[in-house]
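assembly run, all chains below
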Amino acid sequence: MNDIQTRRVLILCEQGLLRSGIQSLLASDPRLTIVGITDNLEDARALLQELEPDALIVDQAHFPLSVHTAQSDLQLDPPPTLVTLDESDNRIRIHHIQERALSTPNELIEVLVT
Amino acid sequence: MRILLTDDHILFRKGLAQLLDAQPDFQVVGEAGDGMQAQEKARELMPDLILMDINMPRCDGCEATRRIKAELPYVLIVMLTVSDDDQDLFTALKNGAQGYLLKKMEPEDLFAQLRGLARGEAPLSRLLASKILREFSRAPAPEREMEPELTAREHQVLELVARGLTNREIADKLVVSENTVKNHLRNILAKLHLENRVQAAAYALREGLAPLRHGKVT
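ok done. output:
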């Protein structure tokens, strides 16, 4: 019996190459399951409600704060961990509060699984 | 095709490396986080192709392209960027880039464009191709020197290149093989002292050898 709990992740990213690249990087970790992937906010809202993922990864450059608002509107309980990516300085932000520098993809994975 | 990836965004670079390495005909041989590193790695690894971001610290992608092409003219460089700014596009091409692609494209489109590059085609989004054609068609025709001696067939191929057709599409129109079109294109580039089909298209428009027009070529 497989009792490993995987963290269910939804990805919202406008850039096709970055979106697929992140999906590929995360898919190789058995602790994570990519449950959804989209390039627009409207679909992301629907997927959030339908799938109730544990974590949501957002491309900050194209969806600034709007996701946070959408997430609040949906009143998910518990709310998914919101991880925003900032391409300009290789940093990630968690719930718009914590901020971490990113030097390898594994650091993103560790944030998602903890 | 041995590829050097140059991009300062770690997740983008690592993700793209994984996507490319999963393809049987692509191999990522190195990565660089800025233009200076790209120049060093290009010298060390001698890749077939460099995928180059533009906005990077220390040395941007346009300047890195200029330096690398000056030192290693046979290395192919394709810009891969979020910028659809005219200035970036024309600077990159002027500095020797063989193509210019936007990061919002899907992986399969990127793979197809890179495979086209191996066949002598220029990776370029359609939007950016039209910008180039518009820009050159506005430019005044310079004093003509020696008229290059293109054959009638080469003129036809050049005109179709200027209209944005791929080698396959040109082959279909002229009822010849794709290899024949490639050979014509090689001859055209050699005769006109040009590096790629984008330059050939721009040349054709500038010189009035292949004005933009609609309709079938007979």
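The mean pLDDT of chain B is 85.

The longest helix of chain B spans residues 178-192.

not gonna interpret more than that til we talk
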